[in-house]
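User: Structure please.
Assistant: Input sequence and predicted structure:
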Amino acid sequence: MKRLNIQILLTGNELMLGDIVDSNSAMIAQQLKNIGVNIQRKVTVADELSDLVDEIRHMSKQADILIINGGLGPTIDDLTAQALAQATKVELNDNSEALSHLTAWCQQRNTPLAYPNLKQIHLPSNVKIIANPIGSAVGFMSHFQECDIYCTPGVPHELERMMNEEIIPLIKKKIPDGQQYHVIRSQTFGYGESSIQALLDKKMPEWPKEIELGFRAAMPFLEVKLACAREEHAPLLTSTQQKVANLLGDHLIFPIEKNSHTMAEHVLALLNRNKLKATFAESCTGGLISSLLTNISGSSNVFEAGFVTYSNHMKTKMLDVKPATLEKFGAVSKQVVIEMAQGALKKSNADLVIAVSGIAGPNGGTTEKPVGSVWIAWGSNKQIETKYFCLKGNRKYFQKMVATRALDLIRRVLIDSQEIPHYMK
């Protein structure tokens, strides 16, 4: 069965010089993969008109679909419209839809329509407009040499909206019957890629050949992706995903709300659902855990207070940690994080608490307490749990992982998990 030949043409001196990194083609590839098609070829060229014209003519002979990215702006080096007109041998004309869009865009921002922007309405005479809901430049499409050509802006968030809302639905109509791609993505925390693979090899040795398994690390999470390329295999995909979910248990992060993507968002949603409030007492993370939660709209409903007690003196002054405890056990100890947690609960009247104290490095470690050491306390007035970890990595990695593990431990309290996380075994 013939599959769609999709190619991408990227344009821009910035890409060729390395001034910006090409993330657009990765995003396009991912969106296409989600509907069961792949990019066959990708070409990047500088802002040279003759090179663009040559590539458009050459690639459109081979491809069923050509996506041209970049070169739609108002400056002299934005050449996509001119190149497409030359390649397809049509005139450039003022496009009334593009003008209406640009005029409305300026009015919404209470800014005058500058003369250079009018370049964005000079388009090949035979194109159809592709809506750009957030940018000044419309996209446009043409059909040449049996190839559909989509011209898109280089601004990543504009491109993503255009792909989602306009181009992907058009491409889906071109996919042959029976090639519907189905994918289930699961967010996990606590297992590494090799650990999950080993678990599946042991517990599901007869993995169905019709189901594709993939992983994508997006620190601190690991995405597990299951997919099938044909509609008839969709029920098998669902049943396989259920088996995987049963094996991974509470390491799977199920969204409580649509916009739950980070660990802090998951925790906030669970706190809201349970009508509980949290407080954090932080030393080595310097307020990062509190910041992750308060970055989210609506956090005031569930976040009672945060205490950043970096010095021993402030641990005592703000959280009532006993000087004798600090003297006997040191700041990075089980006893100190318990007293930090108790103090934070008392001062804030919150329901749940996280307390952390550790050595972020690169200096400050000892033989008994090396760099990367951290004690985490979590729980409530009824019960406070503690755990020691030693996390190897740079300071930024250490702080992010401490914050995420701490939030995950509170998440597990909120879902009444009885499992021991893989990272605690």
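The chain is about 40% helix and 20% strand.
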